[in-house]
Amino acid sequence: MKNNIKMKKYLSLMLLLLASAVYGCKTKYMAEYDEFEEHYNKFMKRYKSTEQEAYYHVDEEVEWVDVPFKPMDSAEVKRYRNDFFEFKEIADFTPYDEQKEFHTPYRDSLWEVDQERVKRYLDTAADPRYIKFDIFYHEPQYIGKIDKYCVLKHEKKDNVEAIVYWESEFQQRLGIWIAYSTDKGKSWLQYYTGVVQERPLYVKWYSKYPLINSNGDLQIEACLMRKASDPGLHGYVPYELVQDGLLLTFDLETLRKDSDGDGLTDIVEKRLHTDLYNSDTDGDGIPDNLDMNPRFNLPRTDKTLIYEAVLNEDPRAHHFWDEEKCEIIPFSEVPAQHHVTDTNRTILIVTDDPEFLACQPTKERVVFLTKEEFESKKDKFLDERSTISFSPLFKVDNVVDAYVFDVGGWTWSEDYIAEKRKGGWWICLTGMIME
Known about the structure:
Helix content is 24%, strand content 25%. It has helices at residues 11-23, 26-46, 50-60, 74-78, 105-124, 252-256, 266-272, 302-311, 354-357, 371-377; strands at 86-89, 142-143, 146-147, 151-157, 160-167, 175-181, 189-196, 201-203, 218-227, 239-250, 328-330, 346-350, 365-369, 389-390, 394-395, 402-408, 412-421, 424-434. Strands 11, 14, 15, 16, 17 and 18 form a 6-stranded antiparallel β-sheet that branches. The protein has a 4-stranded antiparallel β-sheet with strand order 1-10-9-8. The protein has a 4-stranded antiparallel β-sheet with strand order 4-5-6-7.
């Protein structure tokens, strides 16, 4: 994560300037701004860190050279083999249609409805220059527990009902999942396939092949894709066709396989980087399917509390530069043990800091990887990145046991101060950037 600490200002500074511009109250708001800036700068000067400045100065002095994008060799893409499922070439297939690249049947139907709604609105609105966004709202509809918006293909055969759908779990934009019922949709089992849309397999929702084959397994047409260029507007990554005419088969035995009986299928365990043959990878007594930090069981330290406060969004540590509201987090405090549920998101964090690896998450399941592990486990097709990045804890120059650090995701970053005070840590949010 690359930040320029000189560019980061407390959000209120920008809001005050904006207010003065909008309402024309320049004198009043500029006076408030000047007073606030003076106070803020004095406060931040106290927590100056030469260590942090040197760290980012070196980073920013690197001479960046644009390397022209080069698509992956098509022959390499064609050599791709899935770790769990087979796909074969077929002669009678539905050609790839780039207009349907990210759509689903229900999503396409909503597009047609929205177009008609906009037309009616423009015909009747008092001021058609302004469209009310609530005209695009659609009451969610479900098949079983699956939102129809995400359903790629749905089929019934005798007592069997099956759904192929996408779900943005395991740090993935479009992971392919299966929902399967053997009692006419009364109860469902859901399985992750390990396939990520377009990386490099693209699953066609408009496949004409029956979803449920004669063996009761699931099949769907697919093709092989590759990234066509670097990300464009809003991070959109264009992909292009490499090979069409494939039939992908998901056999139920493989979907269900759980070698260590911990409630996580082998496919999921591979995604979480846990041990397929050990139900408690880190040996902490919590089975992998319930463990919020399934890969590491290390001794806690005082600094572990700093990481946990930010990771778990502790309200005591999320006040903007307010010494009164930022409460002390006691050194003796250990977060209550939480277990993974269906509502917990899974995130990836790469770090070599054992004090960070000892964290006990409460909001999201965290897959921690060391930098060496991350490099060795990279999948050239998935282009996996750390979901959240933490900088080192940089020592403050003139305050004993005080640190500054920053945290960020793909489109945001935050700055913090952590100071050891009587009985615990005082942690304060000092800056934020949203892109």
